Each structure stands twice: as C-alpha cells, then as structure tokens.
Amino acid sequence: MQRRTLAALFAAPLAAPAIARAQADWPQRPVTILVPFVAGGPSDLVARAIALKLPERIGGQAVVVENRPGANGTVASQFLARQTPDGHVLMVGSIGVYAINTALRPNLGYDPVRDFTPITLAVTTPNVLVVNPARVDVRTPAEFITWLHANGARASYSTSGVGSSDQLTTELFKLRTQTDATHIPYQGGAAAATALLAGDVQLSFQNLGTVAGHIAGGRLRAIMVTGQQRHPVLPDVPTAVEAGFADFVVTSWQAVMAPGSMAPTLHARVTDAVRGALDHPETRQRLGAIGLDVVANAPAEYSAFQQSEIARWREVVRVANIRPE
Questions:
Q1: Which of 289, 232, 271, 233 is closest to 122 using CA atoms?
Q2: Which of 63, 101, 214, 314 is the most exposed, having the fewest neighbouring CB atoms within 10 Å of its CB?
Q3: Which domain holds residue 110?
Q4: H or E stretch including 185?
C-alpha cells in the first residue's frame, strides 16, 4: 500500500505536464458529436451544421456525428456523463434532455447540471402546431379546437418522446382548451413528423425546424406557433397568444454540452471552436432557413438560462400533473 502511494505521489508531477500537453494539442483525434435522437430532428440538424464548420476551427481534424437514441435522450446523456472530459466527445441535446427530463424524472441516471460542462446555447425555435391536412381539414386555431372537441376521443398526437417539450406543450394546450388526444411518443422529432405525414396520428406540436420543409411542401399544415411573435419562416401563421392563449409561449432549444469537470483552459478552447462554427454566416443561414435561430452564447449565460428552464418546467410538470408514461 505504501509503495503504491509513493509511486502515485511521484507520478502526479509527471502526469500534470502530459495532461497540459494533451489539452494544448486538442484535438488529437476525431471529435464526436453525440445526438440523443434519430437522424433528421433538430438536435441532429444542429449537430451536422456544427460538424460542417468545426474542422475549420480545429486544424482540419475530422468531426463525426453519432446518433444514440433512446429514452428521450437518457441513453446518450448517461454515455456522455461517463466520458473523459478531453474535448473529443460533445453532445447536442434538446430542452427535454437538458431541462425537462430532470423535472419529470427524479432518477435519471445523470444530472444535466452537475454531470456536464456547458458549452453554449446553440439555437432556439418556437414549436408549431401542425396537422395532417388529409386527416384534419382545418386552417385556423378556432377550427382546430372545434375539430378536437368533436374528435379528441379518437385523435392522437406524436412527440419526440415522453417528457419532451412537444409533449408538455400539447398537454398544456389540452388543459387550456379542455380537449383530449392520445399521446404517441417516438424517438425524436423526425420520427414524430414521419408518423404525422403517414397519417398514423393527426396532429403534433413540433419544433419549427423539424417540420418547416413539410409545411412549405404542403404535406403538413401549420395552425399556430408558440413564439412571442410570428416567425419569419411562417409569417401568415398566428401565434398562440394571437389565438387567445395568454402566456402560451414555448421556445424549444438545443444546446451543446461536454462531459463534466473539463479543465478551464480546454473548456475555453472547445467553447471558442463550437461557438465559431455556429456563428459562421453559412451556419446561421443554413439553420435560419428552417426556423432555427442561432444563439451561440457564452457558457455562463447558457448555464444560467438552463437552470431557469429547469425551474420553469418543474413548475409546469407540477401544475399540469404530468407523469412519465
């Protein structure tokens, strides 16, 4: 025991320069950006947009996007929490992963504040109520509510998972309108939109970035958005507030995190690279075209925002009496 202790004491001064060199040389291998959902949803779109421009910021090193769906982001989040905080594994996750999950499930297996190092709030976007026009022949919020009162017992809605912002948004809408519809969760927004397109469900509150293309192509119809103002991508679609729902403002978001306890110097380098990739004009244009507004703020700003969102959604879950299914 004493021999091992002495060896560790002598090794520690030798290890410190090695760690410092590793941080200075970051990245030493391809950087992986985890996505906790299936391909095609907002987290995936943001991760791939970052991956296109991040190599320019890190000396040409490759960046790989890896989808690890499951349990509304819990599978990938637990994996991230176990990784070494050396800058080679990052994750783009949603409001559900980084805020709502902890309000809805007390035993997650990860803590979105304690177990991760905040990098930046990547994008924000409103949710949009969309219907399959072949299944629901309405065009206005008032018409939709009338339809839902008449058909709610047989209606169903898709979401990106249990505890997602789209589920909580829909449940709040049901409470406000005294209507009903059955929740059908999927593994990500893209899968939820596919189910709606196929007519497996009739409606969904989805991130604008997930469904903007389908709305433009006429495959889905937008009824209202949950932003404070009308969105430039859907200028003719009213807000929930305009439709008479005071304080019904829900902004979904995606953020970038790293494993917890990242060294300050490396944290600064990783943050600078990721924010630079997001702030690139081509990235802003690419994401803005599908309704995702780039934020790319500082870690401290994002951290404060994240904790305020956790508090907000914990209260929503309590008042609405929402439980995991």
A1: 271
A2: 314
A3: 2-124+253-320
A4: strand 182-185
Q: Where residue 15 sits, what CATH number does that domain have?
A: 3.40.190.150
- ω into 27 cis (within 30 of 0): yes
Average pLDDT over every residue of 135-149: 96
Domain boundary among 225, 243, 266: 225
Can you tell me whether residue 67 is helix, strand or coil? Answer: strand
- Check whether residue 16 and residue 111 sit in a common domain: yes
pLDDT value at residue 9: 47
Token pair for 257: 């995190």
Per the structure, the count of domains in the chain is 2
Do 119 and 299 touch, CB atoms closer than 8 A?
yes
Nearest residue to 184 (alpha-carbon basis) of 158, 154, 164, 206: 158
Q: Residue 90 domain-assigned?
A: yes
Strand partners of residue 158: 184
| pTM across the whole model | 0.80
113 and 189 share a domain? no
The Cα 86–Cα 68 span in angstroms is 20
Average pLDDT over residues 301-320: 89
